Amino acid sequence: MKNKFLLRVMILFSLLFGVYSIQAQNKHYFAGKMYIDTAGFVYIAKHDTVKLHGNVTSVRQPAVAKRGMLSFADSTNWKSDNESFVNGYVRSHKTGAFIFPVGQGAYRPAAISKSADATPTDVAYHNTAQYDKNALDADINGITDESWLILGTTAAVITLSWSADISSLVDDITHIGIAGWDGTKWVKIAAEVNDISPIFGTPSDINATGSISTMSEIEPNTYFAYTLAIVKCPKLECDIVLDLKLFLEGVTNEGPVMSTYLQGISRYPDLVPDKVLPVKNPFSNMPEKYSQINEDSGPAGKIVDWILVEIVTNFEPFEYEDIQYTYYDLVAKRALLLKPDGSVVDTTGKKPLFKPYNIDNIRIVVKARNHLPVISSALLAFDDDVTYNFSENINKALTMPWASYPAMAYRNGVACLYAGDVWNGIPADRTTNVINATDIDRYHSRLKNGWSLGCYCFEDVNMDGMIDGGDHAFISAGGRQVTQSPLLYFVKRP
Description:
Blueprint: H1 2-17, E1 19-22, E2 28-31, E3 34-36, E4 41-44, E5 49-52, E6 56-58, E7 69-72, E8 77-79, E9 86-87, E10 89-92, E11 98-100, E12 110-112, E13 121-126, E14 140-143, E15 147-151, E16 158-162, E17 176-181, E18 186-189, E19 191-193, E20 210-214, E21 226-231, E22 240-245, E23 247-248, E24 252-253, E25 257-258, E26 305-320, E27 323-338, E28 344-345, E29 353-354, E30 363-368, E31 374-375, E32 386-389, E33 409-411, E34 414-417, E35 434-435, H2 437-448, H3 469-480, E36 483-484, E37 490-492
Parallel strand pairs: 1-4, 2-5, 3-6, 4-7, 5-8, 6-9, 7-10, 22-32, 23-34, 27-37
Antiparallel strand pairs: 10-13, 11-12, 12-16, 13-15, 14-21, 16-20, 17-18, 17-21, 19-20, 22-29, 24-25, 26-27, 26-30, 27-28, 30-31, 33-34, 35-36
Helix pairs in contact: 2-3
């Protein structure tokens, strides 16, 4: 009570004389419900700590001479909560990171990574937008009804917060961004949601508290105000989401759905052990690993097998020995996971992300173990999210003009990659791009040595964990007609 009374007396002096500095060191002051009038200035000296107990209100008029101000020297601290904050301006002279205990009707602190004693930073929170909410840059879908005025010349990482459930405003935490008012419109600032909020010290949660920080330092005066924005992605250059779907002929059952015998319970539990999918992907020079690949309780859930997805572009036809080929450039590739419903995910169970490229003539290549690879028939732009479903129709895969059969086959109502390309299959992307007599011979040779039980084998095209008659039908059918993939006629540019 004594400390609280003393601080109120000091505040009274500040209101009468404009400035008051609390000089005692290592003291803890308790600030109750107080008002800092026009040009009022309360300065908390070094090494002091202020416990806000009830709101401190200061005049918000933007002119520097008219603001009320609670100012913190370097090495000062404060403690606050949802019921106790500064309804007005807070100044920081601190050289390091500082959290501003601001709010208006709600506790909505902001933070900066640094300031300077000679060039302090001022912050105030307004629960209403200070500028036109409808003047939005093209990549902003909306903004919240609030603004942070952040004033200063020391470049710093800026952090904004939410202190309550905001799921009614945005349905996914990955769509929370930061926008700044540039004088004519709100523009997106490259930012990332904090895994652990530097403001609250807990994981950011769309249903509770959280924060988002700019990805680089910004001079606060660059923008007139800052706010939380609803964006497709918070980064300045957004990763592309690839929504890809495909089926493999060897494992596609009625439904359609693909079997997951290699991951889960074996078709023949007395003969074949389950859980044989490799933790490390089977493709050459690809880093992806998934330690829980044989556990359907993992983040990716039920898994059929690994696949390789490539993005290719810059196609240039050329002829060699009277055969038409096409040069291409490889833009990107990723080892990914195929689920029973045909969807493709990464090891987190989410749709895979790729870096954007300002090109409008890419094709998608899919390579799957012991199946013929395919390349999309459509030329696609690759500067925004891409959806492509190979299983919709066999025409979704490119077929060479002279081919007498399509590049995919129908099975159980969906277009599938041909099963049976088993020769020279190690690593999995080193294939001949053709199913012929060589694949049949390899299958028979392997079968002569007895059934391979519980193996991750290229000849096991129906992926039930064993090489037997169930694989023969696919391999022999493709081999008799010498089924080719169009990739046989595509050559990576040197």
